[in-house]
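Hi,

I'm pasting everything inline rather than attaching a file, because the server keeps stripping attachments. The sequence lines come first, and each chain or strand is labelled.
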Amino acid sequence: MKPAPFDYYAPATIEEACQLLSDAGGGATLVAGGQTLMPLLALRMSQPFVLVDLNGIKALKGISRQAGRTRIGPITRQNEAIADATLNAAQPLIVTAVKHVGHHQTRNRGTIGGSIALGEPAAELPATAVALGASVEVRSTRGTRQIKADELYFGPYATALEPDEMITAIDVPEWPSGTVSVFREIAQRPGDFALVGLTGAVTIDNGRITRAGIAWFGMGPTPIKARQAESALIGQEIAALDAKAIAELAIADTAPFDDLHATAEYRRTVGRRVFTRALSEALDLRAAA
Amino acid sequence: MSTHQIQLTINGRPQHATVEGRLTLSDFLRGDAGCTGVHVGCEHGVCGACTVMVDGNAVRSCLMLAVQADGCTVTTVEGLAAEDGTLHPVQQALRDEHGLQCGFCTPGIVMTLASLTAADNKAAPDKVMNALSGHICRCTGYQGIRRAARKLAGGAA
Ligand code: FES
Ligand code: FES
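And the predicted assembly:
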């Protein structure tokens, strides 16, 4: 229950951090909030030779807006994000999602980028990034690249990030006015991972849906984009919308499994209801506003 | 395996130490700093017993390395009561409301409540109540803890 020995480094710049990752040849692990990594170290499920602590790198912190996009520094702590006026104004769905991550005490350390980089399939932030069409900026000594959130996740904790790469920013498009958020999480206790989770945004213009981004969490090996439901929603007139039918399409894209906490059938049944209700409520609210 | 010099303030006293990179803050506080009120239940972030304040925020000290607390101000349950033994309002409220039995979970709960009900930085009542989800208590059934929290937070959460 104690971490195995490692060499600890706290670089001050992104370049130094990338160099450490490159020098370690795959033997290094990054730590920011540590709210998932520290348990893995304690249980010795992770035994890196080198631990690179990102907390001292100022360039990785903070939230800014430019040209219709919100840029989130990956080591921004979850509770800082919840309190951030810019994020509340530009990305209300992300704020809602972050409030569901872990507990108050873990959100005081845990970071936005840490959750996105880990790729837990039942976590709120990876799915929300997928739903909103976010991308991550990734650096290594070999250069910089952008990865769409949609192409980041391969399986549970398996991502497109190479061992020498680190996320240097999360880039989220800002959705137009007339956008409503959809967020539902069914969990056994607050702070637990989702048994069924739904997150997304729908833009309405003149009684018609013009844009939709919806993803599930806890409903398969990765966050799952509800592609069929999205296409069915776009162009749809709200007055003629059949939420139940669209929920069927959304469920068709999921791949839930049986585990200790719930069966796949349970997840599908609850998912259908959650989707139908969440969508109807979001659209009603919009109509009433 | 690396070792590091750290300097931090624990319950108002400056402290210097040399620590291994892998040493957790909870083990440092208990073993090196003598703050055995920091209770270690699960050692992997599930139970909340090890909660302390780092720079005023409640965090799980088993999920932080001692080296990461370099330059920080740490408060443990030992730092709350007055010199003469007068209990901190959070401690008094838990006592009055029978918010503890064996007391193992209590220091962690005290630190969460103290961080969120400080006179100069009081959180909304529902936030205080929700923050209790970060603690597991095997004895009380939580009702006494919730009464104490409600009393401290003010408002009918
Ligand atoms: S000992 Fe730290 S959370 Fe249980
Ligand atoms: S009082 Fe015994 S665990 Fe809470």
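Chain B has two domains: 3-78, 89-152.

If the labels don't parse on your end, tell me and I'll reformat.
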